[in-house]
Amino acid sequence: MRILLIAEACNPEWASVPLEGWSHSQAIAALPDVQAHLVTQIRNQDAILRAGLRESVDFTAIDSEAVMRPAYKLASLLRGGSGKGWTTVMALSSIAYPYFEHLVWKQFAARIRSGEFDIVHRLTPLSPTAPSLLAKRCFRAGVPFVLGPLNGGVPWPKQFDTARRREKEWLSYVRGIYKALPGYRSTRKYASAILCGSKATLEQMPSWCQDKCHYIPENAVDPARFSRLRLRTAQRPIRCVFLGRLVPYKGPDMLLEAMAPLLVAGDVTLQIIGDGPMLPELQQFVASHQLPGVSFLGWVEHQQVQNCLVDADLLTFPSIREFGGGVVLEAMALGVPAVVVDYGGPAELVTTETGWTIPLADRSSLIQRLRQQIAALVAEPTAIDTRGNAARKRALEQFTWSAKAKQVRGIYEILREGVASSKAGESITQPAKSVTTAVSN
Predict the structure, then answer these.
(1) Could you tell me whether strands 119-124 and 2-7 are parallel, antiparallel, or unpaired per DSSP bridges?
(2) Per the domain annotation, does 432 fall within a domain?
(3) pLDDT score recorded for residue 174
(4) Do 238 and 388 form a contact (C-beta atoms < 8 A)?
(5) What is the rounded distance in angstroms from the CA atom of residue 381 to the CA atom of residue 238?
(6) Which of 62, 199, 390, 427 falls between 20 and 30 A from 320, CA-CA?
(7) What is the Cα–Cα distance from 94 to 90, expressed in whole angstroms?
């Protein structure tokens, strides 16, 4: 099976979406009887070469910097270096991205039309707002086009409009306007299959294309990168860890406020791993309340994250608008269960057997519920060990990149069979038969 993988963001040395693009593409390329060629943006070229791939043989780097660089600079200026305003960044990226696909088509059109590839699959960008020029062009060439995973657009909780403004998410108030932009309908119309990385994204898909949509959670974990096992048996003080950017929607300030009396009592400790604009505010809170047992580790290389997590009992991650929640899976793979808010991506990963979900509420109620849950675990720490073991089993059985690649391959097979058996005049945009994912709730 010959696959052309399009991943504009794809880098083994970075984190977040670029690392996801890399991990997903390499898991697909490693499938038996699959021959994959990766197409990415030129800024990823050196890292991919260092990873051992051969240019022109295993991958192609597309130089779209003439448009992408100004878009990145403008986004940085609008954000003011704050690490906020994510919707603005995505909007500018979506406007600039079609130039990248224009160059991809210019270089690969003849090969696609000649039937060199059985499937063309766009892995990144993840945002549903980014249109694809390739969908219609692949349709006309008779080659199935797979889109996704798409993830994003989780509605801001109405209880946290203040956090929304602190995040400079001005465009989020009118985000839905992207559905009226050129390319929105044709991208979905001409895609043969659409992978949805969250239930929120799946629900936002138009009814007329729901039958070609497949729910496969966006995030996965690399067992080679997260190979260690939690070192501890839970006991007082419970060692809690927060891992993520220090921005309002991830809730590190709520976590500190919730844990304050438990820290003073010596019932817990808290290690905060990450950096961001809220760091001075968090440090000031700790100092002014004279909270013991809190440490700020700062930004940590992704390769070193597991070394921080294995010495913890509990991942405490009260993000109120998380699309994916990769950090939750990474902790679970090490046997560290998580306490998360029952909203967005993390709530789709954590079950009642593998962790704890806190009902979404207003800020003060959420802080109170978070405090109560952690206090309950201080009183009964054996529950941490039990759910930690179950969390590790769930992550390694259902959420590895290889498991996800097998799910995607099932969709490829159905699409290829559809092309092979199609009669004259039939459309390859006919929906793929349902593929049951390996994910259980």
Answers:
(1) parallel
(2) no
(3) 53
(4) no
(5) 8
(6) 390
(7) 6
- Answer whether 309's CB lies under 8 Å from 243's CB: yes
State the DSSP string of 86-150: HHHHHHHHHHHHHHHHHHHHHHHHHHHHTT--SEEEEEE---TT---SHHHHHHHHT--EEEEEE
- Per-residue model confidence (pLDDT) at position 144: 97
pLDDT digits (tens, 9 = 90+) for 70-87: 877 776 666 555 555 455
Q: Check if the beta carbon of residue 220 is closer than 8 Å to that of residue 401.
A: yes
Please name which of 298, 300, 312, 321 lies closest in space to residue 250, comparing C-alpha atoms: 321
pLDDT at 441: 54
Domain check: are 206 and 249 in the same one?
no
> In whole angstroms, what is the distance from residue 19 CA to residue 324 CA?
13
Q: Mark the ranges of the chain whose per-residue pLDDT is less than 70.
A: 75-94, 164, 167-178, 180, 421-441
On whether the CB atoms of residues 72 and 38 are closer than 8 A, the answer is no
Instruction: Record the tokens describing residue 288, joined without a space.
Output: 């002014």
CATH label of the domain that carries residue 246 = 3.40.50.2000
End-to-end Cα separation, the chain, in angstroms: 31
284 & 394 share domain: yes
Whether 34 and 22 share a structural domain:
yes
Residues 288 and 320 in one domain: yes
Angle at 154 between CA 365 and CA 23, to 5 degrees: 115
Residue in 208, 245, 17 with CA at minimum distance from that of residue 9: 17
Distance (Å, rounded) from C-alpha 256 to C-alpha 242?
Answer: 10
Cα dihedral value 72, 77, 79, 83, nearest 10: 60
- Which residue, among 176, 163, 220, has the nearest Cα to 197 in the 3D structure? 220
Question: Quick one: 249 and 124 in the same domain?
Answer: no
Is there a domain that residue 132 lies in? yes
- Would you state the structure tokens that stand for residue 279, as one six-digit string? 């760091």
Residue 207 burial class via C-beta count within 10 angstroms: exposed 0-12, middle 13-18, buried 19 and up = exposed
In whole angstroms, give the CA distance from residue 208 to residue 385: 46
Residue 344 maps to a domain: yes
**Tokens (6 digits) for 13:** 């040395």
Both 77 and 33 in a single domain?
Answer: yes
CA distance 347 to 244: 17
- On whether the pTM is more than 0.70, the answer is yes
CA gap 154, 175 in Å, rounded: 11
Structural domain that includes position 177:
2-220+400-421
Residue 71's pLDDT is 77
